[in-house]
Amino acid sequence: MKAIHTAVFPVAGLGTRFLPATKAIAKEMLTVVDKPLIQYASEEAINAGITNLVFVVGRTKNAIIDHYDKAYELETELALRHKDALLDVVADVVPDNIHCVFIRQSEAKGLGHAVLCARPAVGDEAFAVILPDDLINNTNGNGCIKQMVDVYAQYHGSVIGTQTVDVSESDKYGMVSGPKLSEKVARVDEIVEKPLPSAAPSDQAVVGRYILTPAIFEKLLTTERGAGNEIQLTDALAELRKTEEIYAYSFDGRRYDCGSKLGYLEANVELALQHDDLAEEFCSFLKKLEL
Question: Which CATH class for the 6-158+207-259 domain?
Answer without folding.
Answer: alpha beta
